[in-house]
Amino acid sequence: MKTMLGAAAWLAAGVGLGVGALAGFTTWTLNGPRRPWPNYTFTPFEMRVHSDDVAFTAADGVALAGWWLDQPESSTVVICAHGHRGNKSDMLGIGSGLWRAGYSVLLFDFRGNGDSGDGPQSLAHHEQRDLTAAVDLVRERRPDARIAVVSFSMGASTTILAAADDPRIEAIVADSPFATLSDVVATRYRRHRLPSEPLIPVADLVNRLRYGYAFAQVRPLDKVDALSPRPLLLLHGTADKVIPYDHALQLAEAAAPGPVELVAFDGADHCGGYFTDRPAYIALVSDFLERSLGTRPATDRA
């Protein structure tokens, strides 16, 4: 009997250690600093687009960096927000496309990525300060311009959360956003055939203790309705394995009856809509911005 109890205790201890290790690894993948080396990226030079380097600072002191693609005659500035562990060079396709369509564009790096400084990182929590700082920069450079945000994955969820409290953002394009952080983590566990329980509660606890925020604080689903009456365009691939298409359906339902549009890319994986037809994607976004803001972009400079 004592032998059985001892074995059970060792088994329970082993399971507990395993759960703790998995939870710790989960939170590190969400928040831990990781910069690629060597940090070689394309720039606006390769896209034959003139740009200015810009530097600005988030409210908590993190130094941020970006590229300003100017169209002086444009009445709209589009901020492009990249995804988790990405950088501003990821936005060169859509950014240069919208610049050629006549919009001024700001591409920037979230904290801990690209040319921006290090600081507390997360999955769409701390990054809200960075997007707000980008809006501040646009207001300084172009006080009378209307501001839209075109965003992807984590950047899209960050945009929904930040824009809910920032009316200066007048139109939102959110490509492949997640509805809740806990569901993103659960999806990842399912992909590796791991049980969500008890992993999610333990990972949430570790995240709060180590990184200072709870999963429940990152729920775009709870804030998307605050965007109304501002227009929202949701874009999502139906075969998304990172953030399932169901997240877009949840967000669209929660945003209604506000002005929300949902465009599905049949068979596309995560953030794959742009790559199904690049010119059509840029035209789709440009048309939405024109209809939503009631302004026409400046004359094409391509």
UniProtKB/TrEMBL annotation:
It comes from the Bacteria. InterPro entries: AB_hydrolase_fold, DNA-binding_regulatory, Hydrolase_4, Pept_S33_TAP-like_C. Residues 74-183 form the Serine aminopeptidase S33 domain. Keywords: Hydrolase. Gene3D superfamilies: alpha/beta hydrolase (3.40.50.1820). The keyword NAD does not apply. GO terms for molecular function: hydrolase activity. Residues 215-300 form the Peptidase S33 tripeptidyl aminopeptidase-like C-terminal domain. The keyword Kinase does not apply. It holds the Pfam family Abhydrolase_4. This is Alpha/beta hydrolase family protein.
